[in-house]
Design a protein that fits this description.
Elements (H helix, E strand, L loop, with lengths): L1 E3 L7 H12 L4 E3 L6 E5 L3 H11 L8 E3 L3 H7 L4 H10 L4 E6 L6 H4 L4 E5 L4 H10 L3 E5 L10 H4 L1 H7 L5 E4 L9 E7 L2 E6 L8
Parallel strand pairs: 1-8, 2-8, 4-6, 5-9
Antiparallel strand pairs: 2-3, 3-7, 4-7, 5-6, 9-10
């Protein structure tokens, strides 16, 4: 199923339909400010397992959470003054911040880890879904390592739907990007390390 949402003014009826899917254990593909991503509700452990299976890997380090705002980030991760300033300067935006996780995050997400990747995409559809859901999305970008030069399979919602037939819905928010987020590790005692340089430079 493909559901169309427009970034300028996401349709409330369709938005509620998306959230209903998530609240009942569904897995979706949705647009971000980087590539399209798989997502499910944080409180749905079976959906988290499905997401991992659909994406085709067991590596929990590839899974992050998408929050509505910095206040919500602070509920699910430990945020000191330095990190707060970084988040405030750079979010919403195409960044994944690796932070010490709080106990509120499901073991299905953590799988033995003590850190979690956190995102607030600069995308009105992603933000609207998370706000309407009332909790973070567990998320992982659609796979980019197996499409070769056929970038349409990570940017075109119709082709993404063809590729990920096992999801419950693909949210068509228009053509996506093919640049990854910049990954920033903030867990090394006050040091900030760029793990992966993505489409945007970090503002300190």
């Amino acid at each position: 199923m493909i559901l169309k949402l427009y970034p300028e003014n996401p349709n409330e009826r369709i938005l509620r339909q998306v959230v209903d899917i998530l609240q009942h254990g569904g897995v979706i593909v949705y647009p971000t400010d980087t590539v399209y991503a798989l997502g499910c509700a944080l409180d749905q452990p079976k959906a988290i397992e499905r997401l991992r299976t659909i994406r085709g890997g067991k590596d929990s380090s590839e899974m992050s959470i998408v929050c509505a705002d910095i206040r919500e980030v602070a509920e699910y991760a430990k945020v000191d003054n330095l990190v707060f300033k970084l988040l405030k300067h750079n979010l919403p935006g195409p960044f994944t911040f690796i932070l010490p996780a709080s106990s509120k995050i499901s073991d299905k997400v953590m799988v033995g880890r003590k850190t979690v990747g956190v995102r607030i995409p600069d995308n009105a559809i992603a933000q609207a879904i998370v706000r309407e859901l009332g909790m973070p999305l567990v998320t992982a970008s659609v796979r980019t390592d197996d499409v070769g030069d056929e970038v349409e399979y990570i940017t075109d919602p119709e082709l993404i739907h063809e590729r990920y037939a096992a999801v419950d819905a693909v949210i068509d928010g228009g053509m996506g990007d093919n640049f990854a987020s910049t990954v920033v590790d903030c867990t090394a005692n006050g040091e900030v390390n760029i793990v992966r340089q993505g489409r945007q430079e970090l503002e300190m």
